[in-house]
Amino acid sequence: MTVDEPGHDEDRHVGLCRTCRHSRVIVSDRGSRFYLCQRSKTDPRFPQYPRLPVIACPGYEPRQAPDAEA
Known about the structure:
Blueprint: H1 9-14, E1 23-27, E2 33-37
Antiparallel strand pairs: 1-2
């Protein structure tokens, strides 16, 4: 996946975390969005809240599309 495609502003600001199956969006009371890496719970190599944009990650796995068949 490339994060430099035109028209994908949030993708460029967040990077791979935007589409990673291990990432969860946390919204603060003030409306700030943070990307929690759930791999950080079991592997110390991964920061809990990575510095964005993440442009390369050894743990990246794309989310399955909701209509994808298993």
